[in-house]
Amino acid sequence: MCKSSQSVPNKGGGGGGAHETEATAWLDTISFCNGFCHWVDEEWTLDSLPADSEQPVQSTRASEAAADADESTPPLAEKSPTEIPARGNRRSRIQAFFKRAWKAIKKPFRCCKRTRVESPNVTPQQSDPEPEPVPGSSGLQNVPDTNPAVTEPASAPGLANCEPTPESFYSLYILREVLGKGSFGTVFRALRKNDGRQATAPAAEMVHVYNCHPFASQHIVAAEQEPGLVCCGGGALFVVSAGGCKIEAYNLQQEGCPLICRFSSMGSVLSIRHSAVGDYLVTIEEKNKATYLRAYTNWRYQAAEKTRVGVRLLGHLLRGSSFRGTPKEQMEIIEIPLFEPPLCMACCSLTGDLLVGCAKSLVIFSLKRQTLNEQLSVLDFERVLILHIQGWSPSQVALCAGYVALQTELEVLVVKLIPCQKSSQAAEEHALLPEDIMTETSLDEDTEMTKDGFSPLHEQEDFFVFPKHQEMLGNDAQECGISLVLEWTGMEAESRRDMSVVYVLFRRFAPDFFQGCSVEETHLHSLQLHPMFTGKQEEASISKRGEPTCMFVFFSLPNTGYLYSLKNTVEMVSTYQYPEKAHQAVLSDQFLYVITRNALQCFTVRCSAVAARVDDPYIDTTMKACPPITMEVCALRIQLFIGLKVVCQDGNHIILLTAADVDSKEETERPARKNTSRKTSVCKTTEPADSGHGWNLYVISSVSTLQLYREIMEYSKRYEQSSPLSQSCIHLLSEGHLLLRTALLNLQDCDSAEKAQLQEAFQESCAHLGDCFSRFDKKDCHLALPYYKMSGLTVTDVIKRNMSMSSVSNGYGKGFIFFLKHSIYEETMEELSKDMADKVLDIFSVAESAQLPHVVSSPSMVNADPDSAMTHLKQLEISGTPSITLSLCTASLALRKGDLQIYRQQMDCHAEMLQVYGFIEEPKLLLHGRGKAVLPTILAQHLRDTQEGLLVAAVVALHENSKIRLEEADLLFQELCKDGVEAESSPQLLVDFWEALLVASSHESIIQELLFRLTSVYIDRITRRDRSGVKALKTAEDLMNSCSHYGMLYPWVSILTPVQFNITHDHQEDLHKLQSLLCGPTLEVSSILPLLEQLSDSDGTGLSVHMLCATKLGQHERSIVRLLDRCPQAIISYANHELQNEKLPLWWQKLFPEVCDRIRKIGNDTVLLSALKETLVVASKELNPLEFLDLLPDDGTAHFFLPHLLECSQ
């Protein structure tokens, strides 16, 4: 006792004033109390155990949990009084006394329960030695607590700034960065010295608690009788009386929730659900020990007194006398027959379909609207599908958009019904199965599952064997061992037989205990499927059964909730750690509402973060951002109530049912042991006594999104003032951002003014997030760029905001520099004023001086002072090695100043080829703008007049390195030459660029485009025959030697268009280039045929082009005729070049007859006679004598043909 109550040494040393004295006295009090508790634990708790049982010394938290568990655990079966020693009774009474004293003393000092970080349960390795006990503020010799949170007692006076003593905490942990601060203390990240493990782990996430108010007002519903069950939907609240036979409906949309109507059920209601689609109620009722499933339609007509009620069976419509004459609308009760008693049910929020869970199957009923006559239609259901489950009895089910979720006490399964191709195997699988066969199959399957280890829980005589935790996502869920067999029923069965079951998610939990909940009480609850639509989907899509953007499933244990995303990739979104045992939870788009015994808690959700990434492909890029899905959740508010029983939610209303139990504590804390197998049974509700407890039915209205966002912004300013780089500030801003994003995803119910306010608030939140990330120097600093872009702020506005923040934080963060650098590189950025541009230069000269050449070259910096920019560049050149880009940038500034001497000095520093590399590194030295707004720089204009080759080579290099597109390059040269002597649309400098790019490019699409453009230009110039006298950079001979797409001219082409032809030199070059392209291997002649219409073949120029095109198209016979008619002197050259291989027979089949005919008509023409002789020479070599004799004409002379016949014979 004395050792445990030693005082704590003062860390600061010396005098600390009254403040330190008060703190020391407070810590001494804690030390004494904790030491006393430790002494009680050692002296009494351990000695009171039997001699054969040895237990390790528990930590303070473990001792508390054990003490609490001792009171709630049922006592073991007592032996005979004669067998119990008297000493044991006395010791038990003394032990109970000290336990109560221990709990009473320790209760005010349980500071560890108020921390915001829960440490993982780390099992130390046996080889690791136990850490030496170090006396701390309590002086206890226990194993150190792994909780990293360093907190002070909330009620401790004068301890707001008191740090932990080095003897207790710093000797066991190495402190890292601060995770957050709050009224209860400071949370650090720490490393444990004995094993190097972090004190925080992903399995135990931080739960942030912010004192924001998501609830606006609350009022009590004036129900006449005590509520037993509650549900809501469609703007109405439904209350089932405690007796279970009276249902009251209240209007949630009106102030005070006035009564809409009340009606009686046909039995005692065990469960009730409402469907917004169809506006009907469905109940599970009990009467005379039998269970029924009923649906109540047109219930709103019960507002009028003495209204008729119709009762009918499923599928049997009321016809005849009931609807003769004027149609009458009335409430109908539909009896829905089932083979098995219903255990649970759920309604699809999109289609209104009904899912009913039974002991061995799931039954799906499709909602229909049957038309009785032109003026009246009624709702009805059709049983369309039965899913036989082997080995499962669901306790809760959910249905939405084809997804089916079901759970037992410790297992959850989610499947989806999807279309598939019909097959004989599928037909056999979907065949109708008798009930007896299903029962035998179920039993056999259970046996197999037992053999394979899938049996959930096997009860032995003295203990239970529980399965381990298991999670299967996507295709892996098929191995869960649960078989589902489809049985189609109803009229639509034939049309829907092409459906199959796809396993989506399976999760199994092992029973566990924690404070306030025993192993027997560990079971799942609050199963829910939650769809989420985005603004791109119209409201009408719900009625048309459109697919939601995202689908989520939520289920919860008493201490932890789980939220999964099901569409696309199945993944866990969030886990929710509750501070105490949770009874029920309800998920909405923005929040998760959880009720414990005496508190309503509101947690944030990440549904909008998932939907944003599905809806917008630009999320998580430099254009847009969104808080991550894995961001820790937070609790916004804990609202205290007494005896919470039920929670439900409809729109912006939360309904709570409270009932203050006055039963004995022993009866409420000693639940009977439940059978925790899969084959569970639904517990029947017991009717409470009228005087058992008091009750209240609350309707709580949530605040608007904008109001809650404003409160979060005000709350975040506290963190920003205390620690601008705190993660808590960004966490709060991210929560507000997600709230606004959720509201923006669903704007159908908002008016234009509210939409504008939401959009304005959204941009404001993006600006605040950009401010936070701009101050960061960590990995997330890049997020400042997309958030600032989404904020709608100009670069000037962002610079001013960060200038004001830099005066406080003494410098600019990396996030701001990252944003500024990328913004300046973009072409769409606005021009900065002179003062702002000079400020940017000053910022980069200090932060990243290497970026100055790129910054100066930006089009947004055109108003910057050239002298100031030259000064910064000179300092950069002095401080480091000069670069090509730096020299080009300096030369560009010299041109702006008109200093040609400095310009020539800088340009002479590097060769032209190296300067091309400089332009590749910084294209903005030559052009500004993108798309249709391309403007040349002053440097590009100067190169046009002095170094055309360098300009063309630089633009070609930019295109080949994907720095500029072909259309942008065309606009650049057109802008450069628009004031020149060339008035045509294709100036010579642009044609030079095309020719140079054709030499360098390797992309087939680019090559064909360039060939077409060049052919068009050549034909146009040859046709018009007017030139401005501008000389091309490359001649036809240069192109033939350097480019494979330009071929050598054919010999017969030179005969058609000799060099002495009566055209100018420039047109001669264009003609040779065109002929060279036609002689090359790449040009597709069929693509340029429309261009040949403007080129006449009346002269040799046009004839040569037309002949080349016809020849490449395979029209050799036609070409022979045209040559003999227009230029017979080129026919032999043409035949020697073109009539080869498979075209060789054209010598004697086409050319020989044509030449003979012309000789007969014209006479002995020397050119034709020479062509005839060459033709006979080729024919004599290729034909045999008989074929040659057949070829000879009858009117020919023997002395002319005889030598060729002899040569053929030899």
UniProtKB/TrEMBL annotation:
UniProt region (Disordered), positions on chain: 51-90, 116-160, 666-685
Superkingdom classification of source: Eukaryota
Bias (Polar residues) ranges: 118-128, 138-149
Residue ranges annotated for the BLOC-2 complex member HPS3 N-terminal domain, each copy included: 208-688
GO CC term (a single one): cytoplasm
Coiled coil feature spans: none
Domain BLOC-2 complex member HPS3 C-terminal: 707-1210
InterPro entries from the UniProt entry: HPS3, HPS3_C, HPS3_N
Protein name according to UniProt: Hermansky-Pudlak syndrome 3 protein
Organism, as annotated: Cirrhinus molitorella (mud carp)
